[in-house]
């Protein structure tokens, strides 16, 4: 499946369906990016901001889907030797962060960071320590 929309002629990358669904359901996504230097590893995470409506849905044992969520995007740079332990945050550096609202703005933000939607995975599919 192509990451380009064939039916609209849109030249912007599109989210794989599973990843877009995860974001709409409030799930976090991650991709590894080049780190600041040898022995370092860096990750960009997209974290949907949890709202009162999400908390209410969770108490009622369901998950709320929202196309207009607010997202926090952060790039963290870690000491590569600490990723497997509990102290992965020692020496971690927040490289950049932004908060955006809506899927179109999210797409524009990750494109501005030279990333594509198809690079993002569920956290358990990466080495991200969080």
Essential attributes:
single chain; 130 residues; alpha+beta; four-stranded antiparallel beta sheet; 20% helix; globular; disordered N terminus
What does this structure look like?
With 130 residues, the protein is α+β, with helices and mostly antiparallel strands. Helix content is 20%, strand content 25%. It is built from 3 helices and 4 strands; from the N terminus they run H-E-E-H-E-E-H. It has helices at 17-24, 52-59, 103-112; strands at 29-33, 40-48, 70-79, 93-101. The chain has a 4-stranded antiparallel β-sheet. The longest helix is centred in the last third of the chain and has 10 residues, at 103-112. The radius of gyration is 16 Å and the shape is globular. The two termini are 30 Å apart. The model is unreliable at 1-8 (pLDDT under 50).
Largest sheet: 4 strands, antiparallel
Strand order in the sheet with the most strands: 1-2-3-4
The rough form would be described as: globular
| Helical segment count | 3
How large is the radius of gyration? 16 Å
SSE order and pairing:
Elements: H1 17-24, E1 29-33, E2 40-48, H2 52-59, E3 70-79, E4 93-101, H3 103-112
Antiparallel strand pairs: 1-2, 2-3, 3-4
Briefly, what is this?
The chain is α+β, with helices and mostly antiparallel strands and 130 residues long.
